[in-house]
Amino acid sequence: MRIQRRLIAPAFLIFTLVACSSEEQSEKRRLGGLGESCQARNDCAPDLACLHGACQLRGLDLKPTGKECYVIECRSKDDCCADFLPPQEYCEWLHSFCQDGDAAACEEYEQNCVCRLECVEDRCVLPDTPCEEDDQCGQGRVCRDGRCAKTCAHDAQCGLLEACIDGTCAQTGCSSDRQCVYLLEHPRAYCDQGSCRVRCTENLDCDMWALEICHGGRCVFAGCTNDAECRAALGAYREVECR
């Protein structure tokens, strides 16, 4: 009897250890399901990816539609100037001086008391000021080809993807992949004939939250099929259209 008891005790201990070990291994092998938390790709099931700390679908099952979402800010100039409220007393004062022949008052009146916004391609914009001489453009600007342009002495005085050419800032686009990596904050960004793009091999490489998909080796907007999709993608704008 003593021999049997000695054999039973080790056997029970081995069974317990094996059972515990199996449960631990099973727990370790269990991969996260849709919506469950994760830290890395291999925390999730094979058909899922770890995005923003949760197991999500690997990518959008979408094809490019060739259509884009457009924000409709205006249909006419009246839409752009509906909320324009100039300082009434100040403008009346300027207007009276302007009628008396004060050129400076007339210019000030045009700048502050008249809505200069125009409706161009569904957006409210300030039109370019045509010019004939540099004096018409104000300090730090010159007249080039009938338009006022910012003056510069070197590229550092110009904006992103601009260069100082003949004393004025001009759009040049990107010139290196490194520029695009910094600009887009993406390690797979590259410069494609002056435009920054992102390389990809699958939809997962692209920004799912921006409705991007991988098409032709680069991330592109998936497009839209109706206005409702545009409202969902762009938020609460006055009016949007898919076209």
Q: Could you explain how this protein is built, in words?
A:
The protein has 243 residues and is an alpha+beta fold. It contains 6 helices and 14 strands. It has helices at 2-29, 77-81, 88-99, 103-112, 177-184, 227-234, and strands at residues 48-51, 54-57, 69-71, 118-120, 123-125, 141-144, 147-150, 162-165, 168-171, 189-192, 195-198, 212-215, 218-221, 240-242. The strands form 7 sheets. The chain has a two-stranded antiparallel sheet with strand order 1-2. α3 (88-99) packs antiparallel against α4.
Task: Label this structure with key terms.
14 strands, 243 residues, elongated, two-stranded antiparallel sheet, 6 helices, 21% strand, alpha+beta
Short description:
29% of the residues lie in helices and 21% in strands. With 243 residues, the protein is of the alpha+beta class. The model is unreliable at 21-27 (pLDDT under 50).
Mean pLDDT: 78
The computed structural class is alpha+beta
Strand-residue fraction?
15-25%
What fraction, in percent, of the residue positions are helical? 25-40%
Distance between the termini: 88 Å
List the helices and strands and how they pair.
Elements: H1 2-29, E1 48-51, E2 54-57, E3 69-71, H2 77-81, H3 88-99, H4 103-112, E4 118-120, E5 123-125, E6 141-144, E7 147-150, E8 162-165, E9 168-171, H5 177-184, E10 189-192, E11 195-198, E12 212-215, E13 218-221, H6 227-234, E14 240-242
Antiparallel strand pairs: 1-2, 3-14, 4-5, 6-7, 8-9, 10-11, 12-13
Helix pairs in contact: 3-4
